[in-house]
Amino acid sequence: MNSSNSPRTVSLIGAPTDVGAGARGASMGPEALRVAGLGPALQARGVQVLDRGNLSGPPNPWLPPVDGYRHLDEVVAWNRAVHEAVHGELQQGRMPILLGGDHCLGLGSISAVARHCRETGKKLRVLWLDAHADFNTNQLTPSGNIHGMPVACLCGFGPQALIEIGGHVPAISPKWIRQIGIRSVDEGEKRFVHEQDLEVFDMRYIDEMGMRHTMELALATLDANTHLHVSFDVDFLDPEIAPGVGTTIPGGPTYREAQLCMEMIADTGLLASLDVMELNPALDVRNKTAELAVDLIESLFGKSTLMRK
């Protein structure tokens, strides 16, 4: 971890594709985040920002699923590109921020982080902020959309071409993940999540125990040798405040709950990589979801709403 007096260096990596999604438009997410001022907002926090531009990959062919997977070859190509880009930034000691794109790309990003942790002897903790568990397989999926499968793939359940990205199967252990904000899980997927013993703080848990207690547990047992990765699906947020996503599920965290979540992550001082996924400006209202995402990312980087001395 950088000492507090050396500025953090961040690399923005755009991944403009909706190839894993069921709705078109997440391919425009990276540009919407830039338009909402993500780079300057981070610079204002004393962060050195390098915008690496956008990765390129195959277009979205918009075809039906084959063997339970939709657009598998294209998803593999995009995830390989993301993996190499994210790993390259980590090797240079920079913090990658992946601008999605749909959440299937979390596979390429997190497999790169896991590879970096293996190479540097670090522990890994992944916070998966999402309305969905994304723990489907081709047997369980009702849609074949691979953005519903990245966590399962990371844990070794998925097509060979995807689970092998990163050179280690499984890329991560389910024990390293904390899922927060979950409120939409398919029946078969639910059983599978329980079988694999994923730690899930769903919305009922957050309603009963509060966001503070939830985050205290999700961030427990971190230490200075832990790489903290946040995979932030914008549909984590309640659609009332964040309409710009393809899979809106009502009953998500409020603005205040989301702020507290981000501030508590920032307080650890351990955030080392970030995905910002599923922003769909085609479904947004005057880019307000992108602006909210930028606001919350600023909080991840230490912008506090608090008037504390």
From TrEMBL:
GO terms for biological process: arginine metabolic process; urea cycle. Its EC number is 3.5.3.1. It catalyses: L-arginine + H2O = urea + L-ornithine. Keywords: Arginine metabolism, Hydrolase, Manganese, Metal-binding. Mn(2+) binds at residues 103, 130, 132, 134, 233, 235. GO terms for molecular function: arginase activity; manganese ion binding. Pathway: Nitrogen metabolism; urea cycle; L-ornithine and urea from L-arginine: step 1/1. SUPFAM superfamilies: Arginase/deacetylase. One of its GO terms (cellular component) is cytoplasm. Binds 2 manganese ions per subunit. InterPro entries: Arginase, Ureohydrolase, Ureohydrolase_dom_sf, Ureohydrolase_Mn_BS. It is an enzyme of class 3 (hydrolase). Its cofactor is Mn(2+). Belongs to the arginase family. This is Arginase. It comes from Roseateles asaccharophilus.
